[in-house]
Amino acid sequence: MRPGYFLLIVLLLSLQSGFSQSLSNRYSEFFTIGVAITPRSTTTDEAKLIVSQFNSVTAENAMKMGPVHPQEDQYNWAGPDSIVAFAQSSGMKVRGHTLVWHNQTPAWIFKDANGQEVNKEILLKRLKEHITTVVTRYRGKIYAWDVVNEAISDNPNEYLRNSNWLKICGPEYINLAFQWAHDADPDAILFYNDYNETDPVKREKIYRLISELKSQGVPVSGLGLQAHWNIYHPSAAQIDSALQLYSKLNVNLQVTELDLSVYPSGPDSTFKPGTIPAEFTPQQEQKQIEKYREIFAIFRKYKKQITSITFWNISDRRSWLDNFPVRGRKNYPLLFDKDLKPKRAFDAVMNFQ
Ligand code: 9MR
């Protein structure tokens, strides 16, 4: 073989293996692969990992109402603008998160100048102004918005969460939020986004909400499944049944906040801060590898319905699950370790027929 050809083949092979080491390339025929980031991560060693492994980003906090709109007449654009600019310069998509939520709301929004609770009319006017301003600013740059986040109750006997939004406005705030987001950017895909989405009771409520909104002509076009799961739960069967149910809704399904905690959910009586080092044990690692393999096999099975999978945080260097719900306890929920190197679970996600 002529040396020139040989070199060309070596170059092509190494390029190909470089590509196949990236999540977004490996999954290009299945889904967009996203990650939740902070403005700071676009300026550290994490930036290279984000660009090489993912093709979509979500602002972990920077676009939420509290951070972006802390006073009635003040918007903080620096953080969200930097995330959008970073994504655009790297050819990545942006999912917007989130327009209406019961958490991370600015205190001013529910109160008048005398500190009294505002009425429905004023609150809806404020919500409309917020949604219109934020969505218009990023029109054409943010392709999907989590419009309403976590509005359903976890209490089996209650349908909608008894948040300030519901108490003051009634359920109408949900319909209006979607309508206002749609008016501001008719091309954006608009999501209802929630967690505990595989729970047999909650999944019926989620199904009901989307069905009702659709039958009322509300422009909801997607369902976001947060997927804050752990290495024990939910089972493959539970995930599969939930996806089967949601597939009947005929909306875009996206996994929006995926991570696999290495602990069972809830309080942890075995953990004593300072006494037990919360290390990543070989048993946890093995279970996590198997669980990641299992859930991605299920996601691939639903490739017609699922359009994107977003991880909630970049690597085990920092996750919202460090210290939550157990203070002082470190967690290891992601596919990259604290040195940003792929974990063995990464191979389990990448290697399939
Ligand atoms: O990861 C976010 C964390 O940094 C914030 O402190 C927290 C505030 O409640 O929100 C976290 O993100 C949440 C997301 O916006 C909505 N679904 C649940 C996520 C984890 O709590």
- By CATH, the topology is TIM Barrel
Spatial strand order of the main sheet: 1-2-3-4-5-6-8-9
Main structural class: alpha/beta
- The CATH level-2 architecture is identified as Alpha-Beta Barrel
What's the alpha carbon Rg, rounded to whole Å? 21 Å
Number of helices: 12
List unreliable stretches of 5+ residues.
Answer: 13-19
Number of strands: 9
**Ligand species:** ligand 9MR
How many structural domains can be distinguished in the coordinates?
1
What is the helical fraction, as a range of percent?
A: 25-40%
Q: Biggest sheet, open or closed, and with what strands and sense? A: 8 strands, parallel, barrel
| Beta-strand share of residues | 15-25%
Outline: globular
Q: SSE string, helix = H, strand = E?
A: HHEHEHHEHEHHEHEEHEHEH
Mean pLDDT comes to 94
The assembly state of the depicted protein chains is single chain
CATH homologous superfamily placement? Glycosidases
Our measurement of the CA-to-CA distance between the termini, rounded to an integer number of angstroms, reads 32 Å
Look at the structure and give the CATH class: Alpha Beta
Report on the architecture of this protein:
- By secondary structure, this protein is of the alpha/beta class.
- It has one domain: TIM Barrel (Alpha-Beta Barrel), CATH 3.20.20.
- It has 12 helices and 9 strands.
- It has helices at 3-20, 23-26, 46-53, 65-68, 78-89, 120-137, 164-169, 172-184, 200-215, 236-247, 282-301, 344-350, and strands spanning 32-37, 56-59, 93-100, 144-149, 189-194, 222-225, 228-230, 252-261, 306-311.
- It has an 8-stranded parallel β-barrel with strand order 1-2-3-4-5-6-8-9, surrounded by 4 helices.
- Helix 3 links the parallel strand 1 (32-37) and strand 2 (56-59).
- The longest helix is centred in the C-terminal third of the chain and has 20 residues, at 282-301.
- The relative contact order is 0.11.
- The model is unreliable at 13-19 (pLDDT under 50).
- Ligand 9MR is lined by residues 60-61, 103-104, 149, 195, 226, 257, 320.
- Ligand 9MR binds next to loops.
